[in-house]
Amino acid sequence: MTSKRKSALLLGLLLTAGFAGGGCGGGAALLTPIPVPAWVPDYIAERAQNKNDHRTVVMPPIPPGVTPQCEDPPDKASILRTMPRVARGVPFIYEEFRDAIETTSEKLVDHMDPPRFYPLIGPAQLHHCHWKCTIYYTETIVSSWPLPYQVKRRRTEVVYIDQDHLHLFIVGQEFQRDMARDMMGARP
C-alpha cells in the first residue's frame, strides 16, 4: 500500500472511532444539533427576572401597640404574571392577543399568626395577606389563512395572590420557656 492510502485509511479509522464512541462523550454527540423551542429563552429570562415572586419576605419586628395591615395591593405586573399564558399560535394561522387590560384588587385575608420558630430565620410571626384580583381584557383571535377571520371577546379572569410575609419577633422570657417546652416535648 502506498503512503497516501495508508494515511487515508488511518484517518478514516480515527474518524470512525471518534464518532462511534458510545455514550454521551462520543464525537457524534458534539456535532449533533439540539433543537430548542423559541419560547425556552423567554421562560428562562422570566424566571431570572422575577425570582422573588415565590420567596417569603422577612420584615423587621412590629413595634408595641401597632397592628400591621396589608396596605399594598399586588401591582399590575405581578397580577399579569399569575394569569394563564396566551396560547402559542402559528403566525398567520392562529394568533391570540390580549388588549385593553384592566385590573382590580380586593383584600380577602389580613391576619397574624402567633409567634413561632422558623428555621434559618428564628422566632417570627407570619402575616397572611391574600388578595382576589380580577382582570378584565379583550381577547382577540386572528387567522389569515385558509380563511381570514378575527374574533374579539370581552373576558374576565380571576386570580388569587398570597403576599404572606414574616415579621421578626423579639423574644421574651415567657416565649423562651414556651419554645423550650414545645421543642423538648415536655408537658406543663
What does this protein structure show overall?
The protein has 188 residues and is of the alpha+beta class. The chain has a domain at 72-188. The chain is built from 5 helices and 6 strands; from the N terminus they run αααβαβββββα. Strands 1, 2, 3, 4, 5 and 6 form a 6-stranded mixed sheet that branches. β4 (122-143) and β5 (149-162) form a beta hairpin. The longest helix is centred in the N-terminal third of the chain and has 18 residues, at 3-20. 3% of the residues are buried.
Identify the notable features of this structure and list them briefly.
flat, 6-stranded mixed sheet, alpha+beta, 188 residues, single chain, 28% helix
List the helices and strands and how they pair.
Layout lengths: L2 H18 L6 H5 L8 H10 L7 E3 L16 H7 L12 E18 L3 E3 L3 E22 L5 E14 L2 E4 L4 H12 L4
Task: Give the structure's gist in a few sentences.
The protein has 188 residues and is of the alpha+beta class. Helices cover 28% and strands 34% of the residues. β4 and β5 form a beta hairpin.
* Structural class by sheet pairing and helices: alpha+beta
Low-confidence stretches: none
How many β-strands, per DSSP?
Answer: 6
Task: Describe the global form.
Answer: flat
- Please report the distance between the alpha carbons of the first and last residues: 97 Å
Helix-strand pattern, N to C?
A: HHHEHEEEEEH
Q: Major sheet: size, sense and barrel closure? A: 6 strands, mixed
Helical content, roughly?
25-40%
Quickly count the helices: 5
Q: What is the C-alpha radius of gyration, as a whole number of Å?
A: 30 Å
